[in-house]
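In response to reviewer comment 3 from the previous cycle, which asked for concrete evidence that the modeling workflow produces usable outputs, we include below a single protein chain processed end to end. The sequence was submitted unchanged, and the resulting structure tokens are shown without manual editing.
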Amino acid sequence: MPKIALMNQEGASVGEIELSEEIFAADVNEAAIHLVVRSQLAAKRQGTQSAKTRGEVRGGGRKIYRQKGTGNARHHSNRAPQFTHGGVVFAPKPRDYVISVPRKVKRLALKGALTSKVNEGEMIVLDKIALDAPKTKLVAAMLKKLGCEKKTLLVLPGKDDSVTRAAHNIPGVTCAYVNTINVLDILAHDKFVITQDAVKLVEEVYA
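The workflow returned the following structure tokens.
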């Protein structure tokens, strides 16, 4: 079983923790991860884009000039795509961008994302997070001691308003819970900080 250092809020090692081989030492299936990320990005799209075709724009019922004798090209409606204020060729219409992904593939991608963070040394396990007050400077100081200078995903075992409120104003820091972590968030952050209790819950839920 893989092992990783257990850190405290001061950035000091206080021991080691064994990680589940099934979750944190799984095969990194890049195809599954790519599919899940595409699915998540597609789900963020509203799909409300719309433009009018030549049959939907206003006007254009009368032939703009006679067929022959003018020396110009033959035209009928001034709402054809080549004219100003004309319709749009192959105009986009509202549509659904959802990409369906099987549950097993989602689970495989999540395990691969977690494993990649362990392999790259970007996962930090904390013994606990205890704040004297829900203040941003306390969380910022803790992350600085842990070496989290860039984008950081902070995973908690459950709802903790004091931590989420304190971390909300720090640029690049995102708080998540065990039941809300996803592949896109894991890969989009440089550091993956998780508490010891949250690790146990992840192993229970996703094993």
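The chain has a mean pLDDT of 90. We consider this sufficient to address the reviewer's concern, and the full set will be provided in the supplementary archive.
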